[in-house]
Amino acid sequence: MIGIYFSGTGNTRYCMEQFVSYYDDTMEIMPLGGIQSELNKLQSESDIVFAYPIYYSNLPKIVREFIDDNKNIWKDINVFIIATMGLFSGDGAGLAARRLKKYGAHVMGGVHIQMPDCVCDVKALKRDFSQNQQIVDNAQKKIKYAARNLRVGTPTHEGLKFYNHLAGLFGQRLWFFNKTRKYSNKLKINKADCIGCGKCAKICPMKNLSISHGKPEPNGRCTMCYRCINQCPKRAITLIGNNVIAQYTVDDFVSEGE
To answer: Can you tell me the distance from the alpha carbon of 137 to that of 143, in angstroms, rounded to the nearest whole number?
Structure first.
C-alpha cells in the first residue's frame, strides 16, 4: 500500500502521517505536488490511501485535476480516502470516491477528520490554543480507529452514502460552487509589507507566484491551500480577507509527547 496526499498548511500531512503510524509505519507516503514523476509507483500498487482537505464542501481544484489527468491509473486500484475539514463537508470522502469510481477504482472506505481552521485571514472558526489542541487530539483518536479498522478489514465509510452527498451539496457546496470551480485570481500581495524573501513562491504547489522586481506576483492559479498566507513572515499575503488574523501549523497544537 502507498499513501498520497495534498496538504496546504500541514493538516492533511499530519493526518496521513498519523494514519500510517497506526496502519503500517513502513508504508511510503508522497505529497501530491511531488508525485508526478513517480506515477509508476501508483500503477504498480493495488491499494492506496488518498488524503486531501475540503474547501467549501468541495475538492481543491488541484486534487480534481490530479484525479482526472491521471484517469488511466485508477482502474482496479483499491482506495481508502481521508478527507480533512475545518468543520463540515457532508460528503468529503464521497467527492473523490465518485470521481475515482468513474475511472474504475474500488473505494474501500473513507473517514472525515476535523482539523484546526487554516483560513487565517477571516474570523470564522477561530479558536483558542486549548480548543485547537483538543481538536487535534480528537483527530488523532479518530485516525487511530480508522487505521485499525482498515487493517482488520472493516473500514469506516464516512461521507460515502447518498444522504452524505445531499448534505454536502445543499449544506454548502451548491451555494459556494464558484469558489472552487476554477483556480482563484484573488490572491493579494501587500507590496509595502512584503520583504521579497521569495518563500511564498518556493512553497506554492501550483507555482502560482513568480518574483518580479524583487516582489512576488500572483498568476491567477491559486488553489486556495493557504500555504503561502500561513507562512509569510510579514503577513503580507491574503486571499479571502484583507488582514491576517492568525498564523499557525498543526504542529503548534500537537500534545507534547505525541
So the answer is: 10
